[in-house]
Amino acid sequence: MTYGQPDRDASPQQGGYPQHLWPDYSQAPSDPAWQPQAPVAGQPKGTAVLGVLAFVLGLAALVAPFLPVDMTGFRQYAAFPLALPGVGLAIAGLIGARRGKPLAVVGAVLCVLALGVGWIMVLNYR
User: How far is residue 67 from each of residues 3, 58, 71, 76, measured CA to CA in Å?
Assistant: First the structure.
């Protein structure tokens, strides 16, 4: 028996199924010059910087309105200057072949939560 030629005489008693029942991609190649394909090295993946920045801005935007400092007249607006650029960075981090996409998603969620908290604080301000 050679590779690429099905073994039609094999039976299940000989230790498995005959090779002619195997799918075509599991057979050994008939071309001796066949080589496995290497991954494409010409397309580098981007960095995770945008996802990290979106996460940091989202976390800061969610925490900033609750800091125990004097923000008289500004506390209800403290989340917006951090959350709006964070959403933009999260969207930019999700586009294209980049690493850190899960971190960009978490950053986007934190930014949206911060925008919701800021909006609630603006509506409840007297």
Answer: 71, 15, 9, 12
Q: Please name which of 53, 76, 52 lies closest in space to residue 64, comparing C-alpha atoms.
A: 76
So what's the pLDDT on residue 117? 96
Contact between 87 and 125 under an 8 Å Cβ cutoff? The reply is: no
Does the predicted TM-score (pTM) go above 0.85?
A: no
Instruction: Let me know: does 59 contact 111? Beta carbons within 8 Å.
Output: no
- Backbone phi and psi for residue 92, each to the nearest 5 degrees, phi listed first: -65, -35
Q: Which residue, among 32, 25, 27, has the nearest Cα to 6 in the 3D structure?
A: 27
Q: Judge residue 51's burial from the number of C-beta atoms within 10 Å of its C-beta, 0-12 exposed, 13-18 middle, 19 or more buried.
A: buried
